[in-house]
């Protein structure tokens, strides 16, 4: 199968692969040429058909991750601005693109607006993203089975495998909670504390340190705070009430009893909803996010900040009482109705919670705990490898480096962050498509685009800490891959690029399944290539292909083409950093 077919494109992508959105003026620009030519080839940069730069390509040989023979094109900084740029080489011409200082402002806003469109428990009006995306409130009182306004605990015996194993060991609870609100996690109706935790933390980080590094686009800080508060208030509702078993812990998730078909809009969901057993991981996510929220909202809303900090401290105490209550892998059930988000190594979650509480309070006990963690500087855990919902140590270390505190070893923490960024730049330099994601086994993981973007947040943090432009330059080049400089020549962000994906796995952005419904909104990031191709659609279409080609833009390909809040969150950070990365060219 050709790369174009794998991407679901009706025409072949041009052999010159470039960021389809464009480049920033004054920042080194790059592209990749697909060719089996052995020697260097001439290239030309065109603006409205007029040549404005030229040079020779650099042969890079066979890129195993892409399954292609390639050259790289290093254009250097461009001091012009315009919308009609293209690169020509070896008889091929790239898709047109722009060079503008404000290139990423629209993407930053769109990536953030995605969260508003994922809101549960509230009507989405046409003013948010247009009439096509307007919908009634989902999972509210009056919805089938009562929605999320009065949710019971999962009854005992509802999580028994075919082998007779009860994943929750007989657990249930007599309490019911109003867990209205929050974000739908992905393309289904589940809401998960561990995925919400890292996502809201990164939106808070966009306020706390991204906004201190570059000026945010107009109105974005207000929108960031509004979205963060929406999720934080939901996290607080997920706590087990006083007097119940596991009081103070956070329920791991609230979800449907069974998977719903595509399409199913939130307000039409017919499934009963249940609270799943609390987990230590979910609780520590709540602790960390609430403590960070207490810092961010301290000036704007001291009362809300105090509520968040009180909840963080109380739930931390509850986690100490139940340090190893793990969420099971519910995927082993025949029809689980929700993702498991299971995790057996909580060292990073404990570190993250202690870090955020220390940064919020200066508490010496939390300082002792974070310094004793395997995830702290000098410890055995490489916290910056594959930052994700299941590996949050790197996020904690970045916040410890970026947020002012009295930490005695602050210089060592900051040095560890910049050293990680240097390693990322070194990896990036070896990749002909300019991205820093290069697993040792050559296989791309689930959500590879999210993992890549989290590596870029490390570069952004290093740029914030040092002001060195090489980190900014690496940040910009890494984004090229997401927006079209890849083996398939596809932009993985809907509405941004000439060949952007538009059939991501979703139950309500489901135009492919029902033409009356919309495609995913502008700014929605696809999870991207996944070597495992775990769903039947991608397995049949692209299974076994080179890593970068293990992707298809199909609504049924949930293993490679889903949308989730935790992948869009680093997109918000990176796009916001790039939106303020340069001043307009003169």
UniProtKB/TrEMBL annotation:
The keyword Ubl conjugation belongs to this UniProt entry's keyword annotation: no
Keywords per UniProt: Carbohydrate metabolism, Cellulose degradation, Glycosidase, Hydrolase, Polysaccharide degradation
Domain Cellulase Ig-like: 13-92
Region span, Disordered: 513-537
EC number(s) per entry: 3.2.1.4
Signal peptide per UniProt: none
Domain of life assignment: Bacteria
Residue ranges of domain Glycoside hydrolase family in the record: 104-574
One Gene Ontology molecular-function label: hydrolase activity
Catalytic residue list: 505, 553, 562
Family membership: Belongs to the glycosyl hydrolase 9 (cellulase E) family.
This protein's name: Endoglucanase
Record organism: Cellulomonas chengniuliangii
């Amino acid at each position: 199968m050709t790369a174009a077919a794998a991407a679901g494109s009706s025409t072949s992508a041009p052999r010159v692969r470039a960021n389809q959105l464009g480049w920033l003026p004054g920042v080194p620009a790059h592209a990749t040429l697909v060719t089996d030519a052995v020697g260097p080839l001439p290239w030309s940069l065109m603006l409205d058909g007029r040549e404005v730069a030229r040079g020779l390509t650099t042969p890079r040989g066979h890129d195993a991750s892409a399954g292609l023979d390639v050259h790289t094109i290093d254009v250097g900084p461009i001091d012009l601005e315009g919308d009609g740029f293209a690169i020509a080489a070896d008889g091929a011409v790239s898709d047109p693109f722009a060079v503008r200082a404000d290139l990423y402002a629209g993407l930053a806003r769109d990536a953030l607006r995605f969260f508003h469109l994922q809101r549960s428990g509230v009507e989405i009006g046409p003013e948010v993203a247009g009439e096509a995306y307007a919908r009634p409130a989902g999972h509210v009182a009056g919805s089938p089975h009562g929605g999320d306004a009065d949710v019971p605990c999962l009854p005992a015996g509802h999580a028994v495998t075919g082998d007779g194993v009860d994943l929750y060991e007989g657990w249930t609870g007599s309490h019911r909670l109003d867990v209205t609100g929050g974000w739908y996690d992905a393309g289904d109706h589940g809401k998960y504390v561990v995925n919400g935790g890292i996502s809201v933390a990164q939106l808070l980080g966009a306020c706390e340190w991204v906004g201190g590094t570059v000026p945010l686009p107009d109105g974005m800080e207000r929108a960031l705070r509004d979205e963060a508060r929406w999720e934080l208030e939901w996290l607080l509702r997920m706590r087990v009430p006083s007097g119940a078993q596991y009081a103070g812990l956070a329920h791991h998730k609230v979800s449907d009893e069974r998977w719903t078909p595509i399409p199913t809009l939130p307000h039409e969901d017919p499934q009963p909803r249940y609270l799943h057993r609390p987990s230590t991981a979910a609780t520590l996510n709540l602790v960390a996010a609430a403590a960070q929220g207490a810092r961010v909202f301290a000036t704007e809303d001291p009362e809300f900040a105090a509520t968040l900090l009180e909840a963080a401290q109380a739930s931390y105490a509850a986690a100490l009482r139940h340090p190893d209550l793990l969420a099971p892998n519910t995927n082993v059930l025949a029809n689980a109705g929700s993702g498991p988000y299971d995790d057996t190594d909580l060292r990073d979650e404990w570190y993250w919670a202690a870090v955020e509480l220390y940064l919020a309070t200066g508490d010496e006990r939390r300082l002792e705990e974070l310094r004793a963690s395997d995830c702290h500087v000098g410890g055995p855990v490489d916290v910056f490898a594959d930052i994700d919902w299941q590996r949050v140590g790197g996020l904690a270390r970045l916040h410890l480096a970026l947020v002012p505190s009295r930490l005695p070893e602050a210089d060592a923490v900051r040095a560890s962050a910049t050293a990680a960024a240097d390693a990322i730049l070194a990896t990036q330099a070896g990749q002909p498509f300019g991205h820093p994601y290069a697993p040792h086994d050559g296989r791309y993981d689930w959500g590879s685009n999210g993992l890549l973007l989290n590596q870029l947040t490390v570069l952004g943090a290093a740029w914030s800490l040092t002001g060195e432009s090489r980190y900014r330059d690496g940040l910009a080049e890494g984004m090229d891959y997401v927006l079209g400089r890849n083996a398939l020549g596809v932009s993985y962000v809907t509405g941004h690029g000439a060949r952007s994906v538009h059939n991501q796995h979703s139950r309500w952005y489901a135009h492919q399944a029902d033409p009356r419904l919309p495609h995913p909104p502008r700014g929605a990031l696809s999870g991207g290539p996944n070597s495992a191709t775990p769903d039947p659609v991608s397995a049949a279409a692209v299974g076994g292909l080179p890593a970068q080609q293990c992707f298809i833009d199909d609504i049924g390909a949930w293993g490679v083409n889903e949308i989730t809040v935790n992948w869009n969150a680093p997109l918000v950070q990176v796009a916001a950093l790039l939106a303020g990365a340069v001043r307009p060219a003169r």
